[in-house]
């Protein structure tokens, strides 16, 4: 079989800086993996006029996994063609419907599974003649079923508890969501299931996040709740994510933005990008041992060489080097 391939999208702002550290870690842990770089976001718009060039999409489609750095630039915030459009299209083209957002720290260990290619962000939208604007939240039962089934499977491999988050007291889509969850639950008798309204869930995430194991929810609720979960466990700057499909490559990316205000200064924290690389090793390449080694090395590296956002003085490269040094201390050998 041919060697696995990772499509690396360096992105914008601090993206190329943190992507470089991810490349070095991946080279150390998986030297057999071929890494191909492609443009996405503002850099792609400047070079080709589109945020997702055909060549980039083709490279992602043929890859084993996609490792994406943050994108975005204030230059395009009000433009008709924006970097974020490329990201949304890439998710849709790869059908990366299951967004995994782990949040770990301070006694909290939870996983949010967010449906990523349906709902309000992908529904019909427009402007009526009277000036009213609208965005439509739509879900087909099959879209709900596949992400819920994946969440159940993940919960079965953790602590066996799944919380489904909705707004069933108001929204018809949420009532459908709840019915589908109850149907799929019959296939997983070993997983305890609970339903919770999204506003109550937000309050409890802010006050008692340690009570949660796996949460599954629709696109917009998941977008908001996963950022809240990141905030109570260290902040967006440390948060990774994985977006998985059933047949094609997954997308692995940090949650934070491109931070153009510090781009080129060498002080960006690469931890979220490296934690996303650990998720890629586990879910994209099927190498859980290397994934665990990298995740642990990131935790220790952050203690030894914190970057300015964490009150330290280490540069992006210094933290990356400290993390790789921890891998060497642990005796990690390439491809072990």
> CATH superfamily of the largest domain, please?
Isopropylmalate Dehydrogenase
**Helix and strand pattern:** EHEHHEHEEEEHEHEHEHEEHHH
The coarse overall form would be globular
The total of beta strands comes to: 12
Q: What structural class do the secondary elements suggest?
A: alpha/beta
- Residue stretches low in confidence (pLDDT < 50, at least 5 long) are none
Radius of gyration in whole Å, from Cα? 20 Å
Q: How many helical stretches?
A: 11
CATH-derived topology of the largest domain: Isopropylmalate Dehydrogenase
Strand content: 15-25%
Number of domains: 2
Just give the CATH class of the largest domain: Alpha Beta
CATH architecture descriptor name of the largest domain: 3-Layer(aba) Sandwich
The mean pLDDT is 95
| Biggest β-sheet description | 10 strands, mixed
Query: Could you give the order of strands across the largest sheet?
Result: 2-1-3-12-11-4-5-10-8-9
N-to-C span: 19 Å
* Helix proportion range: 40-55%
Chain-wise SSE layout:
Elements: E1 5-9, H1 15-29, E2 34-37, H2 42-48, H3 54-62, E3 65-68, H4 83-94, E4 98-105, E5 108-115, E6 125-127, E7 133-135, H5 141-156, E8 161-166, H6 172-185, E9 192-197, H7 198-207, E10 214-217, H8 219-231, E11 240-244, E12 250-254, H9 271-284, H10 288-304, H11 316-329
Parallel strand pairs: 1-2, 1-3, 3-12, 5-10, 8-9, 8-10
Antiparallel strand pairs: 4-5, 4-11, 6-7, 11-12
């Amino acid at each position: 079989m041919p060697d696995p391939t990772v499509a690396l999208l360096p992105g914008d702002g601090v993206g190329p800086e943190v992507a470089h550290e991810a490349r070095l870690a991946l080279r150390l842990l998986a030297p057999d993996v071929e890494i191909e770089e492609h443009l996405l976001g503002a850099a792609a718009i400047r070079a080709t006029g589109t945020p997702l060039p055909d060549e980039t999409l083709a490279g992602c489609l043929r890859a084993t996994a996609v490792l994406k750095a943050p994108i975005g630039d204030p230059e395009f915030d009000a433009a008709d063609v924006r970097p974020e459009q490329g990201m949304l299209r890439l998710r849709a083209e790869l059908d990366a419907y299951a967004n995994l957002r782990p949040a770990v720290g301070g006694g909290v260990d939870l996983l949010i599974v967010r449906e990523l290619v349906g709902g309000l962000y992908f529904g019909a939208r427009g402007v009526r003649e009277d000036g009213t604007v609208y965005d439509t939240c739509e879900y087909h039962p099959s879209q709900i079923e596949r992400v819920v089934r994946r969440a159940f499977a993940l919960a079965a491999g953790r602590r066996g508890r799944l919380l489904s988050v909705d707004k069933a007291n108001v929204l018809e889509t949420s009532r459908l969501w709840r019915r589908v969850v109850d149907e799929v639950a019959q296939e997983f008798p070993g997983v305890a299931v609970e339903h919770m309204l999204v506003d109550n869930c937000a309050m409890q995430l802010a006050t008692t996040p340690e009570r949660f194991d796996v949460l599954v929810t629709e696109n917009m609720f998941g977008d908001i709740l996963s950022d809240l979960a990141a905030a109570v466990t260290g902040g967006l700057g440390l948060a990774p994510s994985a977006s998985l499909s059933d047949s094609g490559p997954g997308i692995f990316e940090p949650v934070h933005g491109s931070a153009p205000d510090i781009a080129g200064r060498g002080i960006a924290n690469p931890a979220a990008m490296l934690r996303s690389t650990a998720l890629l090793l586990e879910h994209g390449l099927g190498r859980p041992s290397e994934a665990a080694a990298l995740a642990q090395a990131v935790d220790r590296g952050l203690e030894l060489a914190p970057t300015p956002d964490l009150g330290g003085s280490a540069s992006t490269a210094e933290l990356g080097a400290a993390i790789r040094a921890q891998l060497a201390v642990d005796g990690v050998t390439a491809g072990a």
